[in-house]
Sequence to fold (637 residues):
Amino acid sequence: MSIAIQSIAKSFGSFRALDDVSLDLPRGELVALLGPSGCGKTTLLRIIAGLETADAGRILLDGQDATEKHVRERQVGFVFQHYALFRHMSVFENVAFGMRVKPRKERLADTEIRRRVNELLDLVQLGWLKDRYPAQLSGGQRQRIALARALAVEPQVLLLDEPFGALDAKVRKELRRWLRRLHDELHISSVFVTHDQEEALEVADRIVLMNRGRIEQVGTPRQIYEEPATSFAYSFIGNVNAFHGKIEGNFVRVGGDLLPHARTDLTDGEPVVAYARPHDTEIIGDAPEVAGVAARVNRVLSNGGISRVELIANGPERGGAKDYFEVEVSSEELSRMALENGQRVRLRSRRLSLFRDQASG
Amino acid sequence: MSSASRVLPGFGLSLGFTLAYLSLIVLIPLSAVFFKTATMDFERFWSVVASDRVVASYKLSFGMSLLAAAINVVFGLMLAWAIVRYSFPGKKIVDALVDLPFALPTAVAGISLTALYAPNGWLGQLLEPLGIKIAFGPYGVLVALVFIGLPFVVRTVQPIIEDFDIGFEEAAASLGASRWQTFRRVVFPALLPALLTGFALAFARAVGEYGSVIFIAGNIPFVSEITPLMIITRLEEFDYEGATAIASVMLIVSFILLLVINLLQGWTARSTRRSA
Fold:
């Protein structure tokens, strides 16, 4: 089922959770709503499900207006962050719940319900647990049962609220891959909420990046990672070095230093933030005549083929703390440079992205 | 298991103290009732405890106590639900009002309920033309017992509702359950153990109640005499054996009923506590 979100707004008291959000999600995709906590992603998911009502705007499911529809009638499967499995029911009864509460004339025969539940439990590979109770399951197992229960009503859309949020790192990774495989088998339109960029980049077909109740960028994981559209997108996704300064011709003045840039649409004196990924940043020798931001080597972390060099800015403190930078270099390059802790160097970037600095502008 | 290997120390001490305390406060006074009763021969015992008037009082006391506890379970649940789930002006006051039957001297409760429900009282005069007689009859007993039992149900169910994540109801709704199905299949089973505990407490309190009932019941023999009144009557006649005989019957019946409720409660709690 395709989902169209049109100018949705929602406030809780004076807090604007969603501010005029519009979004089109095509059928059959696995979409991640990604953003820091409090950005409105869970609220948006709950509005799509019908668990929350928007103050303004419309929700269309498959082109049909579903804004006024009750969650019961929206044909959505919702997986809760803390699973919300019914404690007094066995795993089997939990999965069967959705089929058992159907009106009598739509309800399947008991043998048919039994068959379908077993089928779903096999799908989540937990058939052997059907007589257990939720308390007797591990977190990962509960999550899979919650998913089976949501799938039992044959939803047109699957909505998952921080599905792996409460699990430990290893189980998270397994379940992530498993969800991806499951989606490839079932092709059911799915939306999941996460604050973990790695999770979104790894699992989703499409990422909706949100911040402060607004959508920052929509795109494939590759687009989001490689072509961040906004300053926020840059700083939220992946590791990044940020240089705060002002435009000065073909350079950005960062403290007492200059960084070359290639943009032509910016006027002199404009405050900007220049972002560079650690692998696009290079370390050069310290000499006053070369352009580059002065920094001091703090630590060298070498493991495997790629080493990371952590540096501290030489410039003045910003907001009570020194800026930290990170550079990724190959191990050969590292041994060629022979860096020592405390050594003074300069940084520049092969690929610098500039954004107007809203904080100081 | 040797005591050195125990993680939690003090088992011997705490069990010993518990038993000693329980004996002193509960067991010894109660056994005195049975010892005193044992001084009677069986024939006299039976003639006291099985006399028609006393039997009628058992029926009234236990019947009305069970009924009052059942009424309190229904309305106490509604009250607790409203207090926990909704915010409304004066909520704190409502919350405090619930405890009032605990604090009020029962005689005061009895007198005010009588004044209210008497044929010339505010409510009584409205009910009288309809042929409903509350004060000075068995239903007066019921009203008094409902009044004093209410806080027990509200206060036992309230924390359970507070802990009951709204996510369970949302999950049920998203799976297509109606409000009623959600209540019957999801909410009610989760609250059942607490409701049974509240029922048991309200029932126990009602069986033992004397002060408030005496004023409103009218104390008509065979109609609105409660068992505690029968005991007091014997005491006033200096018939101590007779009083303890009736008391021991009451104790045994109460004990059996409470035991059954507790077993039921334990059984439902086990089936819901298979939970994290």
Summary: Chain B has two domains: 7-39, 41-275. The mean pLDDT of chain B is 89. DSSP finds 13 helices and no strands in chain B.
